[in-house]
Write a structure and sequence with these properties.
The complex is a heterodimer. Chain A is of the alpha+beta class. In chain A, 32% of the residues lie in helices and 16% in strands. Chain A folds into 2 domains: 76 residues, Ubiquitin-like (UB roll) (Roll); 68 residues, [2Fe-2S]-binding domain (DNA polymerase, domain 1). In chain A, a hairpin with a 2-residue loop joins strand 1 and strand 2. In chain A, helix 2 packs across helix 5. Chain A is globular. Chain B is an alpha+beta fold. In chain B, 29% of the residues lie in helices and 24% in strands. Chain B contains 20 helices and 29 strands. In chain B, helix 9 runs parallel beside helix 10. Chain B starts with 11 loop residues before the first helix and ends with a helix. Classes of the chains: A alpha+beta, B alpha+beta. Bound molecules: FE2/S2 (inorganic) cluster (2 copies). One FE2/S2 (inorganic) cluster sits at the interface of chains A and B. The site of one FE2/S2 (inorganic) cluster has 12 residues of chain A, from loops.
């Protein structure tokens, strides 16, 4: 099938790639742009490992086509923070040992960041239901929730 | 010292930035090809026609392989050579790989694989325990039987007798990262394989067999897995072997990863069991004898089923001294995925059998479930808690398990007492009774379960490990060992050991990928043995180098080598006080080798699996949990309200990582027994092959209150810094959730609930109906 030329913005950088019209945004990110931080855990929208935001909306990139990214603003884990400047959520996930194998971690961080943008002071229940679409097989979730709460408190300027 | 510190996972900074590379993230050379399996659509039969012309004609297909194209061994079994990589003309389950497509993209390979036209001469598949028994379809000639005393006589003579049966479902591993492998052809026919595997040596072995080359021609590297849980002990063989064969054939790098549905349909899962039990108790609730029959659904190939079923038998006592016991285990061959290793390796299934017996007896005798368990515990180890009733303390020692091993490190009297106190058990039990008296539809229940889990591979020769350590002249340390990292934090724990031996910070230690070219002949990272075995092997290697450095520094200082100390990044001897890096440089200039291997084998093991006698385990790990649940009797829906867990990791090498294992283990164990239901239809097709239909616990299912504490203990055996293995044992704490659900139903009728596992909302609802109709 003829590939389609896609122009989009990923983590603030303008990028272009060629996409098979049937290819998912997840595959475009991973295979065409080399952004392998977003993971495939299911390919069916059930695990959240592929979470990114598109024009500010949290989406499963395995359920979005690469060609749909045309003209959009995409944010992935790679845009969240680097070595020198970790996002508070990233730092708190490390501090709280809120990860084990780490495969779910990028998706959870992207989802949690979006939550805190919408709601700077979520209750524990709000956190647990917001993240209910992000499966983790390793941690049992407790430390993940603690880390999100702690990061939220820090971002609000409260000492946790 | 670096051990016992709660340091983060070694790759945490990479995980949170998305830069941690898993197999599918490794940049591949240009021209890398992708594989997919074409699968059997019937559960049992012979292939009468295999028409692959449309597959071959499909877009971007480079080649298609069938069994006839394989140059050497067509086998990926980890045990008895009964598992062809590609069907040999017969098929044994829905999903069995029949052919392999090699294509230019992952998608092209998968699309093509669906285009085969296969005709079968179908046979009636064996899907149930009953059908397998009727057809005498089994592994080994007959059941294995382990016996202690005369159980039948003891039960017959007992004041109270109970009997029953129940089913315990299997479990999908659902490691978030699916199976994956990448094979890179080298000069001279050699092969390098990157695999998401808990067992690189096994991959090396199977790839070498398939390529007809010695093991030295194959190097396997594993940096990390996105979860393993036992599912990557043998189930990665097929992908690695297929990639290697394809890479040999095409001369191109070849990669394969299962998409989630394929992964669930092709790979093996936890063994499901049906357990029959009868037991006799005295009027005080002390068990006199018990008789178990285990029916184990093993699937189509043997894989690891024998040691799994053995381990179930070895945990049929759990924490209780059984004066007389008989355990009979049938390993049944059925036409479904070949059940395989899964955290606990049969132990959980064996353990839930005796927990069911205790639960049932506490119902019949009207005894508190904690009390009846305490009355049946083994005796506390010397120097431990002294709260046990006198008759336990006065029992003749040593007390032995049904397989004749003395239990000398028991500590559940102390753990239970501490947990009962910290969880406020007595008051909450009363509150639950009060709640249940006042509420008709939502009922509450509390479950308690202890864990005593045997640590060591029951195949004694596997209890060995190797390590390779280099110290460079700048004082940096390169660490390698045979263990694999699947999220459990093994690499960090072992790095902490290395740092402690040299008296330096962990930052100085470079953790490197598991590599069969560095440490050969390794065992799978399994049986919770990762830190025990590899920690000791690394310690041995470090101590060799340390002794050499000490000699050099001692000579320089004019003191004896034993007076040299390594601490705080300094090496001190007499008047000499230098940085570790200077000591390393000094040794280098003195022409002393700064590289060493280390080796360890677990002592004291002596086990005869046929006789069922001996010491299969070096020691036991312990723990206990108390779970409170709420159940809606109208729908069976339920949730976990509170969990209190107290777990023994010995002198923990890293409390942060160990608590993570306990939390994750508990949730996975509770998932196994509550929401995770595998459903095969009557044609043998797995109907729950994606997270849309197979429910692992989600964040929203997390217990409202989740108190996890490590027991402040020390391993009486000489393990690495007196720590204990912690990978599998906490999984079984989840049994308390299952027991709590049963407890919540106790007010629905006079009878015993007879719950099967998983206790899904549907199963709970059925139990409510059975009980309220007096069945
Ligand atoms: S991979 Fe997209 S939701 Fe699972
Ligand atoms: S840390 Fe392994 S899946 Fe979440």
């Amino acid at each position: 099938m003829t590939k389609v030329h896609v122009t989009t913005t990923v983590n603030g950088d303008p990028v272009e790639f060629l996409a098979d019209p049937r290819e998912t945004l997840l595959d475009s990110l991973r295979n065409s742009l080399g952004l392998t931080g977003s993971k495939e855990g299911c390919g069916t929208g059930d695990c959240g490992a592929c979470s990114v935001t598109m024009n500010g909306t949290l989406v499963c990139s395995c359920l979005v086509l690469g060609v749909e990214a045309e003209g959009a603003q995409i944010e992935t884990i790679e845009g969240m923070g680097g070595d020198t400047q970790l996002h508070p959520l990233q730092r708190k996930f490390v501090e709280h040992a809120a990860l084990q194998c780490g495969f779910c971690t990028p998706g959870i961080l992207v989802a949690a960041k979006k939550l805190l943008e919408e709601n700077a002071n979520p209750t524990e229940t709000e956190i647990r239901y917001w993240l209910a679409g992000n499966l983790c097989r390793c941690t049992g979730y407790d430390k993940i929730i603690r880390a999100v709460q702690d990061a939220a408190a820090e971002m609000r300027g409260e000492a946790a | 010292m670096s051990v016992s510190k709660p340091l983060p996972h070694d790759a945490a900074a990479l995980h949170v930035t998305g830069r941690a590379r898993y197999v599918d993230d490794i940049p591949t050379p240009r021209g890398t090809l992708h594989l997919a399996f074409g699968q059997s659509t019937v559960a049992r039969g012979k292939i009468t026609e295999l028409n692959l012309s449309e597959v071959r004609a499909s877009n971007d297909v480079v080649a298609v392989l069938t069994a006839d194209d394989l140059p050497f061994d067509n086998d990926v079994s980890p045990s008895i050579h009964d598992e062809p990589l590609l069907s040999d003309g017969t098929v044994h389950y829905v999903g069995q790989p029949v052919f392999a497509v090699i294509a230019r993209s992952h998608r092209a390979a998968r699309v093509a694989a669906r285009k085969a036209k296969i005709a079968y001469e179908e046979e009636i598949p064996i899907l149930t325990i009953e059908a397998a028994l009727q057809a005498n379809s089994r592994f080994e000639d007959g059941p294995r039987i382990y016996e202690k005393g005369d159980a039948a006589a003891a039960i017959a003579a007992a004041a109270h007798r109970i009997e029953g049966e129940f089913e315990i479902g299997g479990q999908e591993h659902f490691y978030l990262e699916g199976q994956a492998a990448l094979a890179l052809p080298q000069d001279n026919g050699d092969m390098v394989v990157h695999a998401s595997t808990q067992h690189p040596t096994e991959i090396q072995h199977k790839v070498a067999e398939a390529l007809g080359v010695p093991m030295h021609a194959v190097r396997v590297e594993t940096r990390r897995m996105g979860g393993g849980f036992g599912g990557k002990e043998s189930q990665g063989n097929a992908l690695a072997v297929a990639c290697a064969v394809a890479a040999r054939l095409t001369g191109q790098p070849c990669k394969m990863r299962y998409d989630r549905d394929d992964d669930m349909v092709i790979t093996g899962k936890r063994h499901d069991f049906k357990i029959l039990y009868e037991a006799g108790f005295d009027t005080e609730g002390r068990i006199l004898g018990v008789n178990f029959v285990h029916y184990v659904r093993c699937g189509w190939a043997q894989d690891l089923s024998l040691p799994v079923a053995d381990r179930a038998m070895l945990h049929a006592d759990n924490a209780y001294l059984l004066p007389a016991a008989r355990i009979e285990s049938h390993r049944l061959r059925t036409n479904m995925q070949s059940a395989t290793a899964f955290r606990g390796f049969g132990g959980p299934q064996g353990m839930i059998g005796i927990e069911r017996v205790m639960d049932h007896a506490s119902h019949v005798l009207g005894l508190d479930p904690v009390t009846i368990r305490q009355r049946n515990y083994y005796s506390e180890m010397a120097g431990g808690d002294t709260s046990a009733p006198a008759y336990i303390r006065d029992r003749e020692k040593p007390e032995t398990t049904p397989y004749g091993m003395a239990v000398t490190d028991f500590e559940l009297h102390g753990i239970t007492r501490a947990l009962v106190d910290s969880s406020d058990y007595a008051a909450r039990r009363a509150a639950v009774a009060d709640w249940n008296a006042r509420n008709e539809t939502i009922k509450r229940g509390i479950g308690f379960s202890p864990v005593k889990f045997g640590i060591s591979f029951t195949l004694t020769h596997l209890n060995q490990a190797g390590a390779l350590v280099h110290v460079y002249q700048d004082g940096s340390i390169h660490l390698n060992h045979g263990g694999t990292e699947m999220g459990q934090g093994l690499f960090q724990k072992v790095a902490q050991v290395a740092a402690a031996r040299f008296g330096v910070e962990t930052e100085r230690v470079k953790i490197t990928a598991t590599d069969t070219g560095k440490v050969p002949n390794t065992s799978a990272t399994a049986a919770s043995s990762g830190s025990d075995l590899n920690g000791m092997a690394v310690r041995a290697a470090c101590d060799t180098i340390r002794a050499r450095i000490a000699d050099v520094v001692a000579q320089n200082a004019g003191v004896a080598a034993q007076n040299v100390t390594f601490a705080d990044g300094r090496v001190r001897a007499g008047d000499v006080d230098i940085g570790f890096e200077d000591a390393a440089a000094m040794a280098y200039l003195a022409r002393v080798s700064l590289s060493a291997t280390g080796f360890y084998k677990t002592p004291k093991l002596d086990w005869d699996r046929i006789a069922g006698q001996g010491r299969p385990f070096f020691y036991f790990a312990y723990g206990a949990a108390l779970t409170e649940v709420a159940v809606d009797l109208r729908t069976g829906e339920n949730r976990i309200l509170r969990v209190d867990a107290l777990h023994d990791a010995g002198a923990s090498l890293n409390p942060a990582l160990d608590i993570g294992q306990v939390e994750g283990g508990y949730v996975q164990g509770a998932g196994w027994l509550t929401t995770e239901e595998l459903v095969w239809d009557d044609q043998g097709k797995l109907r729950t092959h994606a997270p849309s239909t197979y429910k692992i616990p989600a964040c929203s299912d997390r217990p409202d209150i989740f108190n996890v504490t490590l027991w402040d203990g020390k391993n009486p055996e000489k393990t690495i810094y007196r720590s204990k293995a912690v990978g599998e044992p906490p999984f079984m704490l989840g049994i308390s959730a299952f027991l709590a659900l049963g407890d919540a139903l106790s007010s629905c009728g006079a009878g015993y609930h007879g719950l099967n596992a998983p206790a899904t909302a549907e199963e709970v609802w059925h139990a409510v109906q059975r009980m309220s109709h007096g069945a």
